[in-house]
């Protein structure tokens, strides 16, 4: 249960209320303060690794990480000033030593993939201050068709490892070594398909640098059309995960989970995440077909609708019970509603069912 | 589901029966994993040693088709050991005396003999479930796709009522819906016994309401299920059929019978995305819009209404609602003059008491769970908090019914069917999405390594699986997921039409086919 907002503290000179147990970051967030973060994902346990989220607290000698420090009554916090900005910029320059700011990070890589580059821009980080050190080695050998493991861009925020453990519950990946030799890896350093990975894509979507990327979406990186996102719901199982369908021109290029989706809270499975391109498959029917001389042949909509109506009319005139309909458990409700209405309003019978095979 | 998905993180004890949740509902399973990480205990009853079974604190490897016996055995222990929630029973239920008497025969020893689950484990499971502050049941097709599907669900309900595990956070009896909008399809009245909103066709008030709404005198009797409908085609009563987005031939049990029936129709109209075994028999085929190409509403397993939106324009296809309306209009039937999906949905709301408080615009962000009985009502994430729809929850006496066919000398192996993580249903969609084949190229028959050897099969080699209705050849995968004497196969690959074999019986009430179990013979191919 949520605790009541019955405590008071001061953020940037403004008195605000909060609930016991909240972090400084959470309180600041609610009060529309923008504090930069890299290792933070509000679905995960705070980790406190990147230290970008530092704030000053009156009476504390050093700035503290706001994502891990609990708020306490009477606290006086500053989230932004020249000292903090300078500190953050230095940290970002350190990050830039692994990830040159001019590198192109396609937004198709993943939902959070722009976080780092956006901070570079915001803090005016144009080059690396510290040369050459890199953690993580890419795995071009991983031939799986879904997840690019471009660890050269990794900044060791461990969001992927944490989302896999805490959200997905698969523990497929972990961290090997520390410091600049840190490497995100599966057990036995193998391919994802030989690990416990279920290809849910959650690690891809939380990675703030694009080090983990959606390979299927990246196929469309060269297409200059802008990416449009349409909020919808996954069409596979009955959980009803919210997704953003990414399109370029008239084409679906990828799927991203909605972090605020009420049923899934940012999670997806391999089908919802990656099995979308059936929509554009060449096997799709693009025109009605009518049986002529025993064979189904393409027909115009006019003709097909007339033939369909004629046949049902004939059955209806023969007998009220001569027509039956089966609705689809995959189509939207409007389809099923009209399927049953078609039977009921035409014949007054209840000769209708659905493919309730769960 | 009686309870919302968010409740899945709350139980102290989770009882999963007949659900391969990590594969079929992976995102729901992530919530269970969180509950477990937090200390919840997991009991899993399933014939196969699936991933969920590996995660369980207590795994009950029951013989296929013996769920009712197991559940009655657990109820027996709850009664015997004084774990009955009498306060709840007095306030909310009826028929307890008869039920308790009925339970006496289901001793752990007897149930162990039927189910193959050790008696001690039955007792342990019952005690955990019965004494937990909050315990929740989750199930799927493993429970319903049996000749005794209704009995199975009633047994679950009995167990939950007996222990008072309903109507509170982290409790409930929660079926996980397999298809994205099975719930919405039922809600919409695509059922032979209910109008939209589960209004029974037998009630005179409903009959009058819909006779007026649809401008025609409605029947006072139920229609027939699609299983019966296939028979009625062969009897000559049904002559025309409209099938929307279902590959009936490939996904129904007993394919030969189905094909014969559809062939006998004078007029078959099918709406689908692709040509398939069912469209092949049609007189008219319409290209349907797919997910991503159409606006509409899906209702999920927790009764949440959510909007789906068009992201791309279909190439030549049209929305189902438009196609059906056009046919009806050309037949001269009034009441199909819709301009949009929104019009259709709002009519559905206006006729459904469970949707009375909502409309198309109100469900924009997906915050409503039905019932929403009036405007201003917040929706109902959790059912049965105060009362059951029928007033009191009734204990129903259930008996163990052996499957329609049992293993014999000739067909000595149990075949069970289901889905896998990477594929969905008959794979019309997943099979046409790039990359999925990397994870699973072809169907595999899961066989216990001991059986692989005993039956002279080879891991990776081919086996022939036969039932009285047909045979298929399929690649063998040796795995401990299958217990000895039971094999598993999915129905996702058309090269392995496993439903040629299944279909030995139907639940007498719902006429759901017995897909889950079927005696077969397995030999090297
Ligand atoms: S791969 Fe991405 S999410 Fe994982 S540690 Fe590296 S930067 Fe963070
Ligand atoms: S895809 Fe999912 S299971 Fe695989 S490593 Fe990423 S988070 Fe873990
Ligand atoms: S966001 Fe707080 S330390 Fe990284």
Report how far the terminal alpha carbons of chain B are from each other. Answer: 43 Å
Number of domains of chain B: 3
The helix content of chain B, as a percent range, equals 25-40%
**Strand order, sheet with most strands of chain A:** 2-1-5-3-4
Overall pLDDT confidence of chain A: 91
- Catalogue the unreliable spans of chain B: none
| Biggest sheet character of chain B | 6 strands, mixed
Helix content of chain A: 10-25%
- How is the CATH topology of the largest domain in chain B named? Dimethylsulfoxide Reductase, domain 2
Question: Please, what is the CATH homologous superfamily of the largest domain in chain B?
Answer: Dimethylsulfoxide Reductase, domain 2
Mean pLDDT across the residues of chain B is: 89
Notes on the structure:
The complex is a heterodimer of chains A (358) and B (525). Chain A is an alpha+beta fold and 358 residues long. Chain A has 4 domains: 7-80, Ubiquitin-like (UB roll); 98-222, Alpha-Beta Plaits; 224-283, ADC-like domains (N-terminal domain of TfIIb); 289-354, no CATH class. Chain A is built from 9 helices and 16 strands. In chain A, strands 2-1-5-3-4 form a 5-stranded mixed sheet, covered by helices on one side. A 3-stranded antiparallel sheet of chain A has the order 10-11-12. A two-stranded antiparallel ribbon of chain A has the order 6-9. Chain A is elongated, with a radius of gyration of 27 Å. Chain B has 19 helices and 20 strands. In chain B, helix 4 runs parallel beside helix 10 (149-162) and helix 7 (108-115) packs across helix 8 (119-131). Chain B has helices spanning 21-24, 26-37, 51-55, 67-80, 86-92, 96-103, 108-115, 119-131, 141-144, 149-162, 182-187, 204-214, 226-234, 248-251, 255-263, 320-330, 341-351, 436-439, 449-454; strands at residues 13-17, 41-45, 58-60, 93-94, 135-139, 173-175, 194-195, 199-200, 240-244, 267-272, 284-287, 296-299, 305-308, 393-394, 413-418, 444-447, 462-467, 470-478, 486-490, 518-524. The longest helix of chain B is centred in the first third of the chain and has 14 residues, at 67-80. In chain B, the strands form 6 sheets. A 6-stranded mixed sheet of chain B has the order 16-18-17-20-15-19. With 525 residues, chain B is of the alpha/beta class. Chain B folds into 3 domains: 5-176, Dimethylsulfoxide Reductase, domain 2, CATH 3.40.228.10; 179-222 and 317-374, no CATH class; 413-524, Barwin-like endoglucanases (Beta Barrel). At the A-B interface, helix 4, strand 10, strand 11, helix 7 and strand 13 of A face helix 2, helix 11, helix 12, helix 13 and strand 9 of B. Strand 15 of chain A pairs parallel with strand 9 (240-244) of chain B, so a sheet runs across the interface. The structure holds iron/sulfur cluster (SF4) (2 copies) and FE2/S2 (inorganic) cluster (FES).
């Amino acid at each position: 249960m949520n605790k009541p907002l019955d405590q008071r503290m001061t953020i940037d000179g403004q008195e605000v209320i909060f609930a016991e147990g909240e972090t400084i970051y959470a309180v600041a967030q609610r009060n529309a303060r923008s504090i930069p973060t890299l290792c933070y994902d509000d679905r995960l346990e705070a980790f406190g690794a990147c230290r970008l989220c530092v704030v000053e607290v009156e009476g504390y000698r050093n700035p503290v990480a706001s994502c891990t420090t609990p708020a306490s009554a009477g606290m006086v916090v500053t989230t932004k000033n020249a000292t903090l900005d300078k500190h953050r910029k230095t940290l970002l320059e350190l990050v830039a030593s692994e990830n040159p700011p001019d590198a192109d990070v396609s937004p198709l890589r993943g939902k959070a993939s722009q976080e780092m580059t956006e901070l570079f821009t915001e803090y005016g980080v144009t080059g690396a201050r510290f040369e050459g050190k890199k953690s993580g080695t890419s795995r071009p050998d991983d031939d799986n068709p879904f997840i690019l493991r471009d660890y050269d861009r990794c900044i060791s925020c461990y969001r992927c490892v944490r989302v896999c453990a805490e959200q997905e519950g698969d523990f497929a990946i972990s961290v090997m070594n520390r410091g600049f030799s840190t490497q995100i890896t599966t057990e036995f350093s193998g391919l994802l398909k030989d690990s416990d990975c279920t290809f849910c894509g959650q690690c891809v979507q939380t990675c703030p640098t694009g080090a983990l990327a959606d390979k299927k979406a990246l196929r469309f990186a060269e297409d200059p059309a802008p990416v449009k996102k349409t909020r919808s719901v996954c069409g596979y199982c009955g959980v009803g995960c919210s997704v953003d369908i990414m399109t370029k021109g008239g084409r679906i290029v990828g799927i991203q989970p909605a972090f605020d989706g009420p049923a899934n809270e940012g999670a997806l499975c391999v089908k919802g995440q990656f099995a979308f391109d059936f929509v554009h498959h060449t096997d799709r029917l693009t025109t009605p077909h009518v049986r002529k001389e025993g064979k189904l042949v393409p027909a115009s909509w006019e003709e097909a609708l007339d033939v369909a109506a004629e046949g049902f009319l004939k059955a209806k005139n023969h007998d009220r019970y001569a027509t039956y309909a089966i609705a689809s458990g995959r189509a939207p409700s409007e389809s099923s509603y009209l399927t049953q209405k078609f039977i009921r309003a035409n014949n007054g019978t209840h000769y209708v069912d659905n493919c309730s095979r769960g | 589901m009686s309870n919302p998905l968010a409740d899945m993180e709350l139980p102290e004890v989770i009882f999963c029966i007949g659900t391969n949740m990590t594969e079929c509902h992976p995102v729901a399973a992530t919530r269970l994993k969180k509950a477990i990480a937090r200390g919840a205990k997991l009991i899993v009853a399933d014939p196969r040693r699936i991933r969920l079974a590996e995660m369980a604190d207590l795994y009950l490897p029951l013989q296929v088709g013996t769920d009712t016996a197991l559940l009655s055995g657990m109820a027996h222990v709850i009664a015997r050991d004084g774990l009955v929630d009498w306060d709840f029973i007095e306030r909310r239920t009826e028929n307890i005396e008869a039920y308790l008497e009925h339970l006496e025969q289901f001793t752990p020893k007897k149930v162990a003999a039927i189910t193959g689950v050790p008696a001690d484990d039955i007792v342990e499971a019952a005690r955990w479930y019965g004494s937990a502050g909050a315990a929740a049941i989750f199930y799927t097709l493993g429970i319903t796709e049996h000749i005794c599907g209704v009995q199975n669900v009633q047994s679950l309900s009995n167990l939950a009522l007996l222990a008072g595990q309903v109507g509170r956070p982290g409790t409930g009896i929660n079926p996980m819906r397999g298809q994205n909008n099975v719930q919405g399809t039922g809600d919409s009245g695509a059922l032979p016994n209910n109008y939209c909103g589960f209004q029974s066709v037998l009630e005179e008030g409903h009959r009058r309401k819909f006779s007026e709404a649809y401008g025609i005198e409605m029947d006072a009797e139920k229609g027939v299920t699609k299983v019966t409908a296939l028979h009625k085609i062969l009897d000559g009563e049904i002559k025309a059929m409209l099938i929307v987005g279902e590959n009936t031939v490939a996904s129904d049990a007993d394919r030969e019978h189905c094909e014969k029936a559809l062939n006998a129709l004078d007029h078959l109209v099918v709406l689908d995305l692709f040509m398939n075994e069912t469209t092949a028999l049609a007189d008219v085929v319409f290209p349907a819009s797919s997910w991503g190409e159409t606006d509409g509403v899906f209702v999920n397993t927790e009764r949440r209404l959510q909007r789906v939106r068009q992201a791309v324009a279909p190439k030549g296809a049209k929305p189902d609602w438009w196609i059906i309306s056009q046919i009806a209009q050309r037949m001269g039937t009034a009441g199909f003059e819709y301009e949009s999906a929104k019009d259709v949905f709002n009519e559905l709301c206006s006729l459904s008491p469970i949707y009375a408080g909502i409309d198309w615009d109100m469900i924009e962000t997906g915050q409503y769970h039905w019932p929403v009985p009036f405007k201003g009502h917040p929706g109902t994430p959790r059912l049965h908090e105060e009362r059951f729809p029928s007033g009191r929850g009734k204990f129903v006496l259930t008996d163990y019914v052996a499957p329609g066919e049992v293993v014999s000398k000739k067909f000595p192996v149990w075949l069970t069917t289901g889905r896998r993580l990477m594929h969905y249903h008959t794979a019309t969609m997943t099979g046409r999405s790039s990359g999925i084949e990397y994870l699973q190229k072809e169907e595999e028959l899961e066989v216990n390594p001991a059986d692989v050897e005993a039956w002279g099969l080879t891991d990776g080699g081919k086996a022939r699986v036969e039932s009285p209705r047909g045979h298929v050849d399929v690649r063998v995968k040796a795995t401990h997921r299958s217990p000895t004497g039971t094999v598993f196969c999915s129905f996702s690959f058309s090269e392995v039409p496993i439903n040629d074999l299944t279909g030995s019986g139907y639940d007498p009430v719902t006429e759901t086919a017995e897909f889950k179990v079927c005696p077969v013979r397995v030999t090297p191919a």
